[in-house]
């Protein structure tokens, strides 16, 4: 074969450093964001804190959200996109979201809500998503067993036989039933979780990509089979085995390298913070719910002195400064996009849960990630990142954003009641009971059924135990 030169034209899908940074910043808590900004300023001379006199009070023109018109207001917000912030029109200053401190007055109605915000471990993150699915109690038991078997890297290492054994004697599940629930768990955030090997992990991350993504189909073929043999046979051997060109294999492998082989590592344990720093503030002014980013003591800006040095510096120094200037502008734009996305999600939560803000946990309506994602025009994983380890200051206290979500139970009236609302109803019934004759779980279930909420006695017992309320026998001894 004679050597020859050949040019080809192709498209590549690259998860750029800017996009990676945008996703990273979105899922940070307020305290982690402050640390990230401080590190960025320390490493980039083109970033700096603005002088205190340059900081202006928050704009009074923030859109107000009427209790019954919040959805229309949220729709008027510009969409920062799921994963694609606008990198061209960069602002030179941004008020960091979530850097304000302070906490609202504690309220007992927020207890049930706070319990939903589990420690942000991978298992807690997956269990929270399982809680919001519309699976049957049996399938949820299977889902819990699967989640318990997933390791820190996000892989399911145990066999279906072992998982089925852990479910006995309460649930007898076949391999097909476990597989069906596993497919549901594999749709959770982060993408690729619940895979049984590297190939399946990569295939799960490839599945949501558009069909016209360059190299996607070939990348799926590689992930489904010969990826384990790649170090041995090389790219040319891979091309021969798949009956395609070497350039096509290179495009597919380039796409595979942008994926995460350890998706579970994206979710880590959140240290127990002494103070909670809210990212947003929800207030009510003249009957209107208003959402703003938490106030900041600092303002991030471009260092004008170094920026002006670019035109006077040598070519080498000017090249370095231009690179840092571009990174600084990316940082500012990504922080702005983070704030826009967070505001959009919180405004949607306010429009959906205004009753909760007005009347407490008993008015919390069922709400899932999918509903919020559909309303704000974002992907479910983006919404999940936006609410992860985020808190909001409200008239009812400082609450986790996860507390605005709850699964539902069908009522006799044709609607749904959230699990958190049912817990609040149970708590209210117990608080009003006769101390000498406490209500049993069966009596509580009957009272709820009379109110139009058909709940089994076992479910009442589960909710009561979740609120750390003793049984009727133990309460009578106290009374």
Compact summary:
With 479 residues, this protein is of the alpha+beta class. It has 21 helices and ten strands.
The chain-level mean pLDDT equals 76
Described by its quaternary structure, the protein is: single chain
> What is the terminal separation in angstroms?
94 Å
Give the overall silhouette: flat
Radius of gyration: 26 Å
Poorly predicted runs: 54-119, 269-274
Record field, number of beta strands: 10
Strand-residue proportion: 5-15%
Strands in their spatial order, largest beta sheet? 2-5-4-7-8
Whole-number count of domains: 3
* Helix percentage: 40-55%
Overall SS class? alpha+beta
Main pleated sheet: 5 strands, mixed
What's the helix count?
21
Describe what you observe in this structure.
- There is one protein chain.
- By secondary structure, the protein is an alpha+beta fold.
- The chain folds into three domains: 29-55 and 69-104 and 272-361 and 370-404, no CATH class; 126-266, no CATH class; 408-478, Arc Repressor Mutant, subunit A (Orthogonal Bundle), CATH 1.10.10.
- It has 21 helices and ten strands.
- It has a five-stranded mixed sheet.
- The N and C termini lie far apart (94 Å).
């Amino acid at each position: 074969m004679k050597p020859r030169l050949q040019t080809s034209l192709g498209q590549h899908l690259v998860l750029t450093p800017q996009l990676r940074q945008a996703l990273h910043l979105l899922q940070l808590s307020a305290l982690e964001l402050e640390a990230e900004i401080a590190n960025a300023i320390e490493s980039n001379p083109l970033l700096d804190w603005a002088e205190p006199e340059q900081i202006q009070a928050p704009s009074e023109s923030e859109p107000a959200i009427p209790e019954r018109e919040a959805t229309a207001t949220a729709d008027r917000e510009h969409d920062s996109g799921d994963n694609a912030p606008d990198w061209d029109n960069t602002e030179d200053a941004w008020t960091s979201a979530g850097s304000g401190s302070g906490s609202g007055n504690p309220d007992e109605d927020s207890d049930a809500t706070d319990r939903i915000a589990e420690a942000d471990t991978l298992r807690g993150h997956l269990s929270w998503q399982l809680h919001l699915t519309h699976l049957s109690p049996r399938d949820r038991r299977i889902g819990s067993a699967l989640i318990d078997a997933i390791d820190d890297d996000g892989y399911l290492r145990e066999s279906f036989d072992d998982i089925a054994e852990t479910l006995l004697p309460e649930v007898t599940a076949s391999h097909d039933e476990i597989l069906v629930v596993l497919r549901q768990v594999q749709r959770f955030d982060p993408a690729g979780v619940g895979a049984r090997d590297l190939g399946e992990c990569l295939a799960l991350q490839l599945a949501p990509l558009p069909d016209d993504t360059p190299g996607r189909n070939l990348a799926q073929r590689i992930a489904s089979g010969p990826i384990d043999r790649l170090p041995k046979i090389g790219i040319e051997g891979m091309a021969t085995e798949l009956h395609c060109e070497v350039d096509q294999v290179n495009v597919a492998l380039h796409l595979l390298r942008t994926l995460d082989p350890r998706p579970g590592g994206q979710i880590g344990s959140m240290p127990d913070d002494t103070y909670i720093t809210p990212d947003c503030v929800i207030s009510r002014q003249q009957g209107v719910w208003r959402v703003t980013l938490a106030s900041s003591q600092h303002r991030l800006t471009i260092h004008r002195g170094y920026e002006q040095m670019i035109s006077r510096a040598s070519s080498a120094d000017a090249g370095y400064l231009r690179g840092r200037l571009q990174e600084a502008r990316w940082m500012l734009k990504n922080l702005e996009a983070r704030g826009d996305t967070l505001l959009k999600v919180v405004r949607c939560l306010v429009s959906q849960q205004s009753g909760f803000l007005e009347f407490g946990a008993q008015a919390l309506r069922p709400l899932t990630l999918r509903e919020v994602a559909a309303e704000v025009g974002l992907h479910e994983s983006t919404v999940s990142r936006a609410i992860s380890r985020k808190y909001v200051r409200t008239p009812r206290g400082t609450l986790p954003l996860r507390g605005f979500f709850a699964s539902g139970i069908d009522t006799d009236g044709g609607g749904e009641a959230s699990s958190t609302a049912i817990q609040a109803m149970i708590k209210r019934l117990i608080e009003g009971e006769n101390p000498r004759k406490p209500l049993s779980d069966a009596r509580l279930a009957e009272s709820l059924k009379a109110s139009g909420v058909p709940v089994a006695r076992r479910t009442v017992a589960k909710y009561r135990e979740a609120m750390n309320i003793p049984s009727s026998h133990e309460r009578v001894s106290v009374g």
